[in-house]
């Protein structure tokens, strides 16, 4: 039996409004490409939340998610705990740009997911 389990990591964030343009630029030019370059990261997609577009069933409590969503497709869910990924958080590896931007990233939610079932 293999210890390799494919899956995805989801990261949802908000950015301080006055820093939105710089933070999106940093995410697209530095933060995500560094992680996408790691062996076993098979793709990264970024999404921005839209307003509306769905009905809410009566009595259902809906939580509004952060504005931005990143989906990291992984050949193995252990990749973010590995050496390559962890090395990006070492003080010597963190860029000045990242240090400037970290304080303006808010409401970070993340989770690791494996496929339960596929429909259609």
In brief, what are we looking at here?
The protein is 23% helix and 28% strand. The protein has 3 helices and 4 strands; from the N terminus they run βαββααβ. The chain has helices at 20-36, 83-87, 96-101, and strands spanning 7-15, 41-48, 68-74, 105-113.
pLDDT below 50 for ≥5 consecutive residues: which ranges? none
Largest sheet: number of strands, sense, barrel closure: 4 strands, antiparallel
Instruction: Estimate the strand proportion.
Output: 25-35%
- Based on Cα principal axes, name the global outline: flat
Helical segment tally?
Answer: 3
**What count of structural domains?**
1
For the record, the CATH class is Alpha Beta
Helix and strand string, N-terminal first?
EHEEHHE
CATH architecture term:
2-Layer Sandwich
Overview features:
alpha+beta; Alpha-Beta Plaits; four-stranded antiparallel beta sheet; EthD domain-containing protein
């Amino acid at each position: 039996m293999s210890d390799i389990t494919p899956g995805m990591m989801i990261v949802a964030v908000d950015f301080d409004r006055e820093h939105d343009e710089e933070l999106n630029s940093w995410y697209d030019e530095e933060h995500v490409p560094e992680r996408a370059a790691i062996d076993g990261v098979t793709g990264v997609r970024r999404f921005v939340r839209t307003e509306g577009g769905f009905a809410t069933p009566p009595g259902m409590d809906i939580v509004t998610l952060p504005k931005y969503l990143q989906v990291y497709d992984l050949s193995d869910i252990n990749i973010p705990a590995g050496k390559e990924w962890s090395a990006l958080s070492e003080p010597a590896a963190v860029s000045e740009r990242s240090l400037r931007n970290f304080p303006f990233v808010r409401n970070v939610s993340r989770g690791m997911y494996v496929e339960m079932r596929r429909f259609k």
